[in-house]
Specification:
The complex is a heterotetramer, with two copies of chain A (80 residues) and two copies of chain B (151 residues). With 80 residues, chain A is of the alpha+beta class. Chain A is built from two helices and five strands; from the N terminus they run E-H-E-H-E-E-E. In chain A, strands 2-1-5-3-4 form a five-stranded mixed beta sheet, covered by helices on one side. In chain A, strand 3 and strand 4 form a beta hairpin. With 151 residues, chain B is of the alpha+beta class. Helix content of chain B is 28%, strand content 38%. Chain B contains three helices and nine strands; from the N terminus they run βαβββαβββαββ. In chain B, strands 3, 4, 6, 8 and 9 form a five-stranded antiparallel beta sheet that branches. Chain B has a four-stranded mixed beta sheet with strand order 1-5-7-2. In chain B, a hairpin with a 2-residue loop joins strand 3 and strand 4. In chain B, helix 2 runs antiparallel to helix 3. Chain B is elongated and about 50 Å long. Classes of the chains: A alpha+beta (80), B alpha+beta (151). Chains B and C meet through strand 2 and helix 3 of B and strand 2 and helix 3 of C.
């Protein structure tokens, strides 16, 4: 198990009910982690519509997560 | 070349002054304003939220790309976050160049890329009381924009 | 929709305020600034001259064309005449629209057509003391821009 | 002969030395009038690089001039 810091924004923050949390997980990729969270919380966005960022950098959904990483899932953006 | 997220109203005039350059023959600006409807639904206000550190990093990357592609002299983009009322400025882009072609193209590039890539989200508050996170509708919900009924 | 020739400095902020419109999601502006060189020659100042009644008539025609071609909400263009120093604003164009595509395209159309059709002339004063009416060079003179040696 | 008011701008004003004048001419078109003026004054622009306006409206170079018309020759423009 690794420990991660997860931050939530926008629709994910509202659906999760908190803006960040620390959690222990067996997931080793952002894709696996998102599916784990989706099984637990009422997230409506499927995994393929969410990008992942680790330690303030965009990463592939199947990149490797390390203990202590800060993970953010990015819903479809809508600036402007 | 600066890309910034702002929690306070955007001061367009002072941003534009930072672009003053005696080599510049053209300055093109884009302002995004909160308008009173979207796809036919009356809008009362907007809420913008950003993942600020990554937004500013991705925004700076867009400005650097614009500088490589177009003959720019300067470029600035500021995006507002928080609750905005009708008519308020959500985003300001300013570009200077020797010639107008580069200034127009770069300004357009910056706002197009910013809208497509920068982690900023927009929630519309409708006159009906409903709200919706734009671009986040999913199957089974109301069609685009996703309408979440009032609580 | 206003096209105006101005003998006094252009007040961009107050012009832009006339474009405020709750239906508008986008405002694109173009400013032409006096820059410090043209085709390699150092420029000290510019002189603009207009045939005002026809310039304003032709300018209004351009704005009307832009309104027909693009989904605009408002458009204003003001062109300065007289002697302008480096960095001064020679022309301001502001366009509002619901969406940014129309605002960018219309703003570009207006400045392109204004430069091509509106009876306004520009004389450059060079660091060398020479002056030239831009686009008025003829065979036998210096190549473009036409350089008239100092008296 | 007809009597016309002619206004000069920019390079033509400088080459003519005045900004306007009243003149009597046998010319019946802007093209003919410009050639007449070009023979008299040191205008460098050939007729095909100058547009004509009569009474504050652009006209063809071979449109008909009438007594009392206000005529302006438009050198190549350079706004912006």
């Amino acid at each position: 198990m690794i420990t991660l810091n997860v931050q939530y924004f926008a629709i994910l923050r509202e659906q999760r009910g908190v803006s960040q949390e620390q959690l222990s997980t067996a997931a080793r990729t952002p894709a696996a982690l998102y599916e784990e969270l989706r099984a637990r919380y009422p997230f409506t966005l499927p995994g393929d519509r969410v990008r992942a960022a680790v330690n303030e950098t965009f990463v592939d959904a199947d990149s490797v997560l390390n203990d202590g990483d800060q993970v953010v899932f990015i819903p479809p953006v809508a600036g402007g | 070349m600066t890309f910034r997220i702002s929690t306070t109203p955007i001061e367009a005039a002072s941003l534009q002054r930072t672009l003053v350059d005696e080599r510049a023959g053209a300055c093109v600006t884009f302002e995004g304003w909160v308008r009173n409807q979207n796809e036919g639904q009356p809008v009362l206000s907007l809420e913008y939220e950003a993942y600020t550190p990554l937004a500013e990093k991705e925004g700076e990357r867009i400005l650097a790309e614009a500088q490589q592609r177009f003959a720019l002299l300067g470029a600035v983009c500021v995006h507002r976050v928080g609750l905005l009322q009708l008519g308020e400025m959500a985003v300001w882009v300013g570009v200077t160049a020797e010639h107008r072609g580069a200034a127009f193209e770069a300004c357009r590039y910056i706002i197009d890329e910013a809208k497509a890539r920068v982690p900023i989200w927009k929630k519309e508050h409708y006159a009906s009381g409903a709200t919706a996170w734009i671009n986040c509708a999913t199957r089974g919900e109301h069609s685009h924009p996703a309408a979440i009924p009032p609580a």
